[in-house]
Amino acid sequence: LKKQGSVGFLKPGVKPLGFMKGYYNFSQELGIAVTHSNIEVVCGSDVVFVAVKPHLVPLVLKEVTQHVTGRHMIVSVAAGVTLATLEELLPENSVAIRLMPNLPCLVQEGALLFARGSHAKQEDGALLRSLLHRCGLVEEGPEAWIDIHTGLSGSGVAFGAGRLLRDSGKHPAQLRSEVCTPGGTTIYGLHTLEQGGVRASTMSAVESATERARELGRKSTAGSRK
Q: At which positions is NADPH bound (predicted)?
């Protein structure tokens, strides 16, 4: 197993902030260095989490790609951005992993699913597990499961998160806004909930969020080829 090394986050958004807090929650001293430079993050890190909105992934990776080397493991948490797209945007033979966390990582009760790219080895998956195990349950699966997990666990957590509501001390509306990216998977699911009864709509909401994740994947693939 390779040495853990340093970890960097490229401009984290909403959900990534959740598992970042979960990852560092066990430590009283965070010791996090903050910079406005994505290149500086990549050059100073071994494991790089790409934590930007899906439509920004091509732009961000284009900015840093010449600084990505064999020592790096690139972990994307962007919904719908496929491993094929990541590997197309990164240098040849880059180690890429696709990860979907969820908001309960804030209270270390998350459910995280990851899929390894064609050049990521088992030891890379083991390293990711060791980094994130304090956030909750971390499992590996085929990439086809990621979109389903996005709809069921990544977005679905916004549909009912009792412990998070209890422990965070935040108003439910604030928690909802923290996971609802305009045009994203969660807001599509919540919109479906508003259209009908809760029980039937919960099933439709998960389906809607899952399909939206797949749609984002198709768009990211098309965008990377332009």
A: 38
